[in-house]
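Reopening this ticket.

The earlier resolution said the output was attached, but the attachment link was broken on my side. Pasting everything inline this time so it's all in one place.
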Amino acid sequence: MKAMIMAAGKGTRLGLITDSLPKVLVDINGKSVLQRAVEKCSLHGFDEIIINVHHFANQVIAETERLKHLGYKLTVSDESERLLETGGGLFNARHFFDNEPFLLYNADIITDLDLNQLLNYHFEKNGIATLAVRHRKGNRYFLAGGDGILSGWCNKATGEEIIKRPGNDLCEVAFSGIHIIEPEIFKYMSDGVYSMTSVYLDLAASHRIYTQLYDEGYWFDMGTPEMLESARGYLRNAYLKSES
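Inline output:
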């Protein structure tokens, strides 16, 4: 099965750490963030992977080559000249995909979410996309109905709200940076710089986009130095427990 790992971000919230190093090459207990993402996808059968690059692209390409020598099937989608965000980046790599659903995975996410279970849920619901979500603190949330179908989006900091499927039972859920997507979606996309959130909101009124809630286990976003250290500590302790 095929996957795309989004690895082009600048990682500005990491401050000085990413002044000379791309976020996806930050070390997590002996492995780069990118290696952990590649291992995660491949472990669950998404073993043909395209990786987009922008910030310190040459460094990320070098790490990709190293991982290829370890046996992983990797391809690079070069966004060196212009960062396309998640939507534009995916559309730019559309040639890589076939007629089967694929995984879109943010490189900076570390989680024990079962990607095969997410895929099975996607097959069961038969929507155009399935988004992994959690109940966690933040500012921006997807709004989902009791049936799990995406209905809108809100930003708690600005008060902005977009509703595409009105309802009285809408629940705020935070996106986990992991999607299963049908290739049909490319018919509704185009060249440009834009996010997948805007794509989903454009389609929400006319297509079924499902959310799957996963509040168990662990989930870390390597966006800040604090979260980075939390992930390192959690994984280190988990390893020590497994060895004892």
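Reporter confirms the inline version is readable. The chain has one domain: 2-243. The domain at 2-243 is CATH 3.90.550.10 (Spore Coat Polysaccharide Biosynthesis Protein SpsA; Chain A).
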